[in-house]
């Protein structure tokens, strides 16, 4: 293999606080740190999977990366350009390279526009091409996502969920982006349709050389689609590594527990092994390590000192744990307790 | 390959089944929604009912519970609960049975719990109605029931309204309401689909404990084959209103026979093994009002032949305790395409 390419996307200390309630009626507002100083890189042609429980900050992160949501602090660089330094016009031009596909194919599509109008709308907005060239591009896009030319004259509500997601994908591809955030892009679909959409996204990645930030709560989908994986818990990255490191040799107790909790069709009739305790409120996360209230390996230091994200071994895996395992194994959280850290 | 322990439940002979359903069909507004669904549930047994959206899982269970809207026409050749003929049961008798002999839990607890009553009050009501005990006893039972489903400080939480609880806790509360009178049969309709994987595991662990303790018969409805594999003794796969395959859980996962079951298994990405490319069943599920003739899977089936559009395949034996509804079972090899 050749030397790895420079990262297409570089995210540094990205941070988002939402305040809710409070004000003149109720005293101090509650601050939710939805995304808490998150850093990562995505190389061109790579798929980085982002996984974690509901409310851990996946969507907030994805939207900040595209500057659809302003960060409280931190930096996003795309292809060497700091997005924070761009004015509105240049950001708009930059956005042609960066698109997003959402979970809900209903909400995303204007019911009064035909499918053809919906798909070429980004071209119209960005003033790309002539009516004739847009028509040619429309035919090309319909073919790419597996729709037929006659579909262009119909309205989105006439389509099934899977077909609607194809329309959203065609729309996202219209401007020839290099990078796409897929936020639960196949999660709302039935399994047989989910497989069609996942295959389509993989084919498009190959043929168009796309780079994905792929957000999902489904561990099977994340393993299938990702090259590398980032695991989030309460706004923070707790572990990052190649998909084989994360799924076959997880180092962080949360990753191991998540894998163990996921029902398997290969183990036969078994007892479920749940993580004990409720997910704490993101508005009031535990001090020290945020996972300590549910961690089977927690020690006194975990209650007071937040563990930084540190390399585990020499191979690009990192974990935020005072006692990272070299291989926690998905089946046994207590199998190994690594050297003391911190 | 993978190892599945032999099914401990479902003895071949033994006590009479808790629930017997034969040829259950439902039409709504003249549209056939489910077609000749049959099922037998024994003490301590978990039957997994699996299928994609719209395949008729909920309608089947609501028909057994007699909870469908009035315009639904329900027919069956046999419907017995604990030996009692439900086809002859009056509306009043059904009300007595629901909540005491047979209970149901749902995906969305907010639709099953009454938002204006405390969780405790809902259990107390059920216990008083079915067992005729006094309020004091019923309240103690409610606290006990909430404790059993793992709600901390049950003596205080008993006076909470549903909206004061987290999603996972509400799900537990609904289970407590359903199980307060120790039903012999439990129908769980996607009880964990809306939950995060960690909370899902907690609820499934709880259901497993209760199942073992009370030796209920449980019908676990889900579209998640992982849940079924870990939980069920037997599995029934539905497609477009019909049961197309049924077998002990191990056989469904290790030696599925129907092309739809095989395709479904190959289309789900696993978190445990690498898959280069998923098998994608082409096309979509046919609408209930316009099913294809003959085998309803024919338009999507890789093995379809001319005869498949002509005759409706019957559910036939194809292995020990294993049945599938496909006309070409003998020609489809286990090693071939899904
Ligand atoms: N506009 C907002 N105002 C206030 N709080 C918000 C806002 N958007 C998100 N949050 C909070 O930020 C946290 C992270 O939310 P986010 O939607 O990013 O999570 P997620 O990981 O995408 O969850 P899910 O898996 O449910 O989609 C949550 O606690 C959420 O309630
Ligand atoms: N009250 C009703 N009136 C008319 N049609 C109905 C009614 N309830 C359900 N149906 C139809 O019956 C079919 C089966 O629905 P059912 O709810 O049983 O599916 P399901 O397998 O439970 O799906 P899901 O996984 O989405 O819950 C669907 O086509 C549905 O549209
Ligand atoms: S730092 Fe401590 S509490 Fe946190 S994951 Fe590691 S062992 Fe568990
Ligand atoms: S009967 Fe024919 S169409 Fe139906 S599943 Fe079998 S081979 Fe396929
Ligand atoms: Mg989200
Ligand atoms: Mg249903």
Task: Show the helix and strand layout.
The complex is a heterodimer of chains A (342) and B (338).
Chain A: E1 7-20, E2 30-43, E3 47-51, H1 58-65, E4 73-78, E5 81-82, H2 88-95, E6 98-101, H3 115-125, H4 131-144, H5 161-173, E7 179-183, H6 191-208, E8 211-215, H7 219-225, E9 228-233, E10 236-242, H8 243-248, H9 253-261, H10 300-304, E11 310-312, E12 317-319
Parallel strand pairs in A: 3-8, 3-9, 6-7, 7-8
Antiparallel strand pairs in A: 1-2, 1-4, 4-5, 9-10, 10-12, 11-12
Helix pairs in contact in A: 3-4, 3-5, 5-6
Chain B: E1 19-28, E2 31-41, E3 46-50, H1 57-65, E4 72-75, E5 78-81, E6 84-85, H2 91-97, E7 102-105, H3 109-112, H4 119-131, H5 135-148, H6 154-157, H7 167-179, E8 185-189, H8 197-214, E9 217-222, H9 225-231, E10 234-239, E11 242-248, H10 249-254, H11 259-267, E12 316-319, E13 322-324
Bound molecules: adenosine-5'-triphosphate (2 copies), iron/sulfur cluster (2 copies) and magnesium ion (MG) (2 copies).
How is this structure best described in words?
The complex is a heterodimer of chains A (342) and B (338). Chain A is of the alpha/beta class and 342 residues long. Chain A has one domain (9-20, 32-251, 308-319): P-loop containing nucleotide triphosphate hydrolases (Rossmann fold, 3-Layer(aba) Sandwich). Helix content of chain A is 29%, strand content 22%. Chain A contains 10 helices and 12 strands. Chain A has helices at 58-65, 88-95, 115-125, 131-144, 161-173, 191-208, 219-225, 243-248, 253-261, 300-304; strands spanning 7-20, 30-43, 47-51, 73-78, 81-82, 98-101, 179-183, 211-215, 228-233, 236-242, 310-312, 317-319. In chain A, the strands form 2 sheets. In chain A, strands 6-7-8-3-9-10-12-11 form an 8-stranded mixed beta sheet, sandwiched between helices. A 4-stranded antiparallel beta sheet of chain A has the order 2-1-4-5. In chain A, α3 packs parallel to α5. Residues 331-342 of chain A have low confidence and may be disordered. By secondary structure, chain B is α/β, with parallel strands linked by helices. Chain B folds into 2 domains: 20-232, 3-Layer(aba) Sandwich (Rossmann fold); 242-331, no CATH class. Helix content of chain B is 31%, strand content 21%. Chain B is built from 11 helices and 13 strands. In chain B, the strands form 2 sheets. Chain B has an 8-stranded mixed beta sheet, sandwiched between helices. In chain B, strands 1, 2, 4, 5 and 6 form a 5-stranded antiparallel beta sheet that branches. Chain B starts with 18 loop residues before the first strand and ends in a 14-residue tail after the last strand. Residues 1-12 of chain B have low confidence and may be disordered. One adenosine-5'-triphosphate (ATP) binds at residues 28, 33, 51, 53-59, 69, 223, 288 of chain B. The site of one adenosine-5'-triphosphate has 14 residues of chain A, from β1, β2 and α1. Chain A: Keywords: ATP-binding, Nucleotide-binding, Transport. Chain A: It comes from Cereibacter johrii. Chain A: It is found in: Cell inner membrane.
